[in-house]
Amino acid sequence: MEIEQATGSEKVVVRVSDKRGMYLVWEDISVVVPNFRNGHTRRLLNGLSGYAEPNRIMAIMGPSGSGKSTLLDALAGRLSRNVIMSGSIVLNGKKRRLEYGVVAYVTQEDIMLGTLTVRETIRYSANLRLGGNMRKEEMNERIEGSIREMGLEECADRVIGNWHLRGISGGEKKRLSIALEILTRPNLLFLDEPTTGLDSASAYFVAQTLRNLAHDGKTVISSIHQPSSEVFALFDHLFLLSGGQTIYFGPATKALEFFALAGFPCPTRRNPSDHFLRCINSDFDALTNSSSIMPSHEGISSTGSLSTAAIKATLIEKYRWSEQATTARARIKEISNIEGDDFESKRKCEAKWWKQLSTLTHRSFVNMSRDVGYYWIRISIYIALSLSVGTIFYGVGSSYRAIFARGACGAFISGFMTFMSIGGFPSFIEEMKVFYKERLNGYYGVGVYIVSNFLSSFPFVTVMSIATGTITYYMVRFRTEFSHYLYICLDLIGCIAVVESSMMIIASLVPNFLMGLIIGAGYIGVMMMTAGYFRQIPDLPKIFWRYPISYINYGAWGLQGAFKNDMIGMEFDPLEPGGPKLKGEMVLKTMLGIQVDVSKWWDLAVVILILLMLRLVFFFILKFKERVTPFLYSIYVNLTLQRIKKRPSFRKGPSFPSLHPLSSQESLNSPIH
Ligand SMILES: Nc1ncnc2c1ncn2[C@@H]1O[C@H](COP(=O)(O)OP(=O)(O)OP(=O)(O)O)[C@@H](O)[C@H]1O
């Protein structure tokens, strides 16, 4: 280790060139929800400072709503877009902004594809994220090592499970989430309540594993709600929050001492985390009844009750001037000057684009083939409906009445069957969540995803279309030539693929399942209404519905092509017996409002064009979200900060006076997210 001391200046630079690890310092972090309408700006975090270092595991604790997740998100660069953060974050000696998805972060929600097994999930993730030059044996060792490390051997070949599939337990899911994050051996790991919902044994196992990771040179920061004494004892550092303010920050072992000095000694045999939360929540009865403690502070009323605000204020104030705060300040100053590894280099361990493409396509294909909702239920319904259509319109013939029957049958097949694609929506939402979580970085990331998504779904769309096309064609007996049968199948493939693409776009914009489903159903409904089934296209109101909706509507082109395929070259019986036969072309023009001067193959080509356009739109949406949104957001942050920092109500003191060269006023002026 090389230590540089620049005499004559305040700066002490400690180079840790022979040491891997992440030294994270945050100073005077405030997070607010701006509200310009009634002028009240809500403060979620208030001037928090602290540090995290390698070989240590830190717990962020506090009552529900105290800001644990917000602090974790602020440090990991994952704050939602409606909040503004100010303050300074220094990582390995460099003031920097962590971007969404850059650091290893285990979310509260376990986002995975439920149809895959534990081992498959880890393997696909390793193929996507580990360097292309890693040898196969090395990668296998890394995968099996992660399984062992997280104690997942027993469930390695069991499926994860989803809404229709009973899979691994909650604790195993959580351990799998952690295993996925530690695959790349990150030196900095964030976890949002990893033990929530687990039984005490599972919680202990998870916490113990995190401790082992930390003591292997990693920096681990985890929010945790109310750990048991055993779990609490595994943490090295504690950051205790209440209402977005620091109640305590320092060694976990010294927290009880601090509370005792502040007038709230913990009774023997009480779980320390319970005690802290009871104090903060002013669970006064519980506090006094079980411990016979009557804290001696201002804020105790004549009846002996102690207000929540008084206890919090006391603790905050006591901490501000405590020995732990002094030590923390000194350590923050020290760590701010430690220059360690360049964090950026940790991101460059990704597979090549072709490896990503083949892995994603394969994974998506396997997922869809096992997904009851996406494929099996849908194909069953397609077959059942095709058989129904086939029997209802069996041998439709060429009588005068058959003209209307053919129209209704064609409309049902291309309209309703494509509508059924909505059944794949849960699967699309799941896919998008995994995509956003994985964040395939690199120039090709989004493109690779779009192409793989298309390639993997194409075989299923084709099978479903061929099944529908074959049953209906042979039962209804529209025509006898093979080219007509081929057209029906291709038309269905095109229309179903378009609907799936539209659904993917909706899933990327509206990640909420129910909302997305309603919007998806509405979209298909409008497309059906303007496709010519219910009202002929020439009769549609010109503004909006005819131009442009009917022109960008896949359904209109799909149905038009299907009608041409069915009727051109046909002859139908006249209305009155003995009259001349009715030519199919004439029926199309006069009864269905369809022009016949353009070939049906052009109609199919337009459907394919719409499909390609939608895939392009999907690409731009994902790219926009990846690139432009953060940029626009940083402009918004700057402007908002300029406005709110003028308000006296916004500036409040940090949890302890900043000793970092960057003063709190400077840090407020320098948004980092
Ligand atoms: N993006 C946001 N916009 C508005 N308010 C928010 C936002 N994020 C968090 N909050 C609010 O900030 C407060 C702290 O939320 P946070 O999720 O950080 O609490 P927590 O301590 O993690 O709670 P829990 O233990 O229940 O998960 C809550 O009142 C929450 O409603």
UniProtKB/TrEMBL annotation:
Alphabetized InterPro entries for the sequence: AAA+_ATPase, ABC2_TM, ABC_transporter-like_ATP-bd, ABC_transporter-like_CS, ABCG_dom, P-loop_NTPase, Plant_ABCG
ABC transporter domain segment(s): 24-268
Signal peptide feature range: none
Keywords: ATP-binding, Membrane, Nucleotide-binding, Phosphoprotein, Transmembrane, Transmembrane helix, Transport
GO function term, MF aspect, one: ATP hydrolysis activity
Entry-linked SMART domains: AAA (SM00382)
Pfam families in alphabetical order: ABC2_membrane (PF01061), ABC2_membrane_7 (PF19055), ABC_tran (PF00005)
ATP-binding in keyword set: yes
Keyword Transmembrane set for record: yes
Residues annotated as transmembrane: 375-396, 408-429, 449-473, 485-507, 513-534, 601-622
Cellular compartments annotated: Membrane
Family: Belongs to the ABC transporter superfamily. ABCG family. Eye pigment precursor importer (TC 3.A.1.204) subfamily.
Alphabetized PANTHER family for the sequence: ABC TRANSPORTER G FAMILY MEMBER 11, ABC TRANSPORTER G FAMILY MEMBER 13
Identification of the protein by name: ABC transporter domain-containing protein
Organism whose genome encodes this protein: Psophocarpus tetragonolobus (Winged bean)
